[in-house]
Amino acid sequence: MRKNLYIILVVFTGVLLACIFLFAKKAPEEKIPPFKDRQGTIALSGEWLNSKKAMEGLLAAIEINPNDYKSMLSLSQAYIQEGRETGDHGYYDKAALELLDKILKSQPSNFDAMCCKATVLLSQHHFAEGLDLAQKALPLNPNSAFIYGILCDANLELGSYDNAVKMADKMISLRPDIRSYSRVSYLREIYGDMPGAISVMKLAVSAGYPGLEQTEWTRCVLAHLYENTGSLDSAEVQYKIALQERADYAFAIAGLGRVAKAKGNYKEAIGYYEKAKSMIVEFSFSDELTDLYRLNGENAKANENAKEVIAMLGPNANVEGETGHGHYADKELAYAYLKINDVTNALKHAMVEFERRPENIDVAETLAWVEYKKGEFAEANKHINTALKTNSKNPVLLCRAALIKIKAGEAEKGKAMVKKALESNPFIDPELKKEVSTYL
Fold first, then answer.
1. Gap between the Cα atoms of 145 and 134, Å rounded
2. What is the pLDDT of residues 9-34, one digit of tens each?
3. What is the DSSP string of 206-230?
4. Residue 5 burial by CB count (10 A; 0-12/13-18/19+): exposed, middle or buried?
5. Do residues 98 and 323 make contact, with C-beta atoms less than 8 angstroms apart?
6. d(CA 428, CA 261)
7. What is the pTM of this model?
8. Residue 389's CB: how many other CB atoms inside 10 A?
9. Which domains does the chain have, with CATH numbers?
10. How far apart are CA 426 and CA 418, in angstroms?
């Protein structure tokens, strides 16, 4: 009897210790990343109140049921949009990825989650990885217009322009809407058809609901197309309409700053950009301010601002974050370093980006321009030819190409490019215009 009691006691103690050990080793429950309260004027809209309420509801649903993957997907989509509207991609891309990875761990063939993750990867400039995931998702729903949009974007960023055109054609055949029209417009633009790009972007704006962020972003893209063709008044009208439909829209405010800059009103332009910069996180506003401060004779401010841009981008470039994905920003950093005359670091980052996507025309232009600034004209000429392969009529590209051609010994070709660029848009960046005008 004693022996049996002893055995029972030993077994009970063993089970108890095992339970204690398992409880101690149990991983803490993963917390769902919360949303951030908005600050400033973007926190005052009724739209934000609705978004906030919706996100609160989704978080509550997930807390009740940690396996509510439908709510997780909706929350990840809300976070992707919140990243667009606040500019805080560093936080919201990471938060969305955490949610999407949790879904895909349990449901690896969840088409919508795969598409959303691919979208975030493209936002972080992980274009090859985004393309790979989108290609895996395609067979799951080959009649989805959304997946063809992702495939279009990924191919375009990697420089596979023929494939990008095919994907855009497929997308618009399935669903002609604001998203598909926008992609067709951009492809027409990079292939040099500016009138065609403008006409399709008008369709994109008309297809959107006035006042929504996507619609007013598209309207700002239309305005920028007008800028690139020298139609400043038309551009200004579109930016003002965007502000009527969506009050205090930062990208429209910055657009008015760009128009003021083109007209030579630097102080006014600075005011617009400083306002836009105070509203959302967006490195390009600070980047433009660097040029404006310099044009306005405020060199100390320009240098300080340029360093601020590098600090904003630097930690995110070529770095893998906690989720395994940093935001690649080497192309942007290359230009930022040029603005403080640090050609060595500019070349380093331009080369890193070029190794990732050597066929992309914007990346090739970046590397060529850095090489030009470094005095490596033969290499610059080789890379600018890649940048020109789609016959883009972008006046900044044409002016840079002209300067490179002239220095590389193709003077007549370069001078013809200068003439062509300034005929299409006489309002290009004043410093660049000054440099090319000597060859007219």
1. 12
2. 444 444 444 444 444 444 445 689 99
3. HHSPTTSHHHHHHHHHHHHHHHHTT
4. exposed
5. yes
6. 10
7. 0.89
8. 13
9. 357-440 (1.25.40.10)
10. 11
